[in-house]
Amino acid sequence: MAFPTNSRSGGDPRAASLKEPALVQGYLAQHPKLAAGALSAARHFLKWAGAHGIAYKDLDAAAVDRFARHRCRCGRYSSRQLRDPVYMTDVRRFRRYLENAGIVTVPTSVERLDKYLPEFAVGLRASAIASRPMLDD
């Protein structure tokens, strides 16, 4: 199953050659006061991504959401960790580090919103009608 990515074609050639330990060590080097749990969350996220064939450059917000919902069978990790808001915050911070390091490619163009506006307007009208107070006659 192919998942949509946020990467431009080609991407950063460094992303393909970097390995999990190097990414986590780079994260720790840039943030030396990280807790052990934050490093564990980063390793878990990368292990999951590797097991699902997701390239590091394609680790977007949707990948983090899929990671949070996965049925964890990742060795020493557990699904209980995924329900911990602090753990998932650590995963999101690590993904942000990957963006800042240029490993995860951030799109530079924004799609036009014109195609979404009519449906959005219908939704706004429906919620406005639903929230009107009922007047007794």
Q: Can you describe what's shown?
A:
- By secondary structure, the protein is mainly α.
- It has helices at residues 13-17, 20-30, 36-51, 61-69, 79-82, 85-100, 117-130.
- Residues 1-17 have low confidence and may be disordered.
Q: Distance N terminus to C terminus? A: 57 Å
Q: H/E element string?
A: HHHHHHH
Based on DSSP secondary structure assignment, what is the total number of beta strands?
0
List the total number of helices. 7
Percent helix: 40-55%
From the alpha carbons, calculate the radius of gyration and give it in angstroms: 20 Å
Poorly predicted spans: 1-17
What is the strand content?
A: under 5%
| Assembly state | single chain
Sum up the overall morphology in one term: elongated
Which secondary structure elements does this structure contain, and how are they paired or packed?
Blueprint: H1 13-17, H2 20-30, H3 36-51, H4 61-69, H5 79-82, H6 85-100, H7 117-130
Helix pairs in contact: 2-3, 3-6
Highlighted features:
elongated; about 55% helix; about 140 residues; mainly alpha; 7 helices
Structure at a glance:
The chain has 7 helices and no strands. It has helices spanning 13-17, 20-30, 36-51, 61-69, 79-82, 85-100, 117-130.
